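agent> call fold_tool(seq_1)
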Amino acid sequence: MDLSLSTRTVGDRTVVEVGGEIDVYTAPKLREQLVELVNDGNFHLVVNMEGVDFLDSTGLGVLVGGLKRVRAHEGSLRLVCNQERILKIFRITGLTKVFPIHTSVEEAVAATD
C-alpha cells in the first residue's frame, strides 16, 4: 500500500489529507510534506487521517516532529481520526495527551484548543 497526500486550505488552516499506510517506507513522504508546508508559512495544520489504514512508530515520529515544527512558530497541529485501531495507538503511546484529536475536519478547523 502506498501513501496518498493532498492539501487544501479551510479558513486559516491547512488540511493535509492522508490515505494509505504511514510506515517506515512512506513516512518520509509525509515528513517532506509537513516540512514544506511549515517552510511556506503554514503553521496551523490539520492532518486528516480518516483514510489511514496503518500507522507505525515511524509515522508517529513524523507527526510528533511536525507538531514540534509548528509549535516553534506558535502554530498548531490537530489530527482527525475516528478509526479505533489508529486511536488505540495514540492511547497506548500517551499521545492523546499531546495531540488534539477530532472526529471530523470541520470540528478540527473550528476548534480553538
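agent> call fold_tool(seq_2)
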Amino acid sequence: MHAGVGDEIQVHGRTVGSAEQRGEILEVRGPDGAPPYLVRFADGHEALVYPGPDCEVQAHAD
C-alpha cells in the first residue's frame, strides 16, 4: 500500500454493525509512501495507522 499526505484512508468495519471510518493522512512515516500513516479521522482524533486488508487509500485530487 502506498499513500501521500492529503490522501484519504477508509477503514471498513470488520464486523456486522461496525461503522466505516474515514480519515485524512497527515504524515507518511514509511519509505516511499509505505505505512505507517498518521491519520486524522472525521471525529477529530489522530492515530498512527498500520493499514490491513480492511483499508483502502484514495488519492487526494489536486
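agent> summarizing second result for user.
The chain has no helices and five strands. The radius of gyration is 11 Å.
agent> awaiting next instruction.
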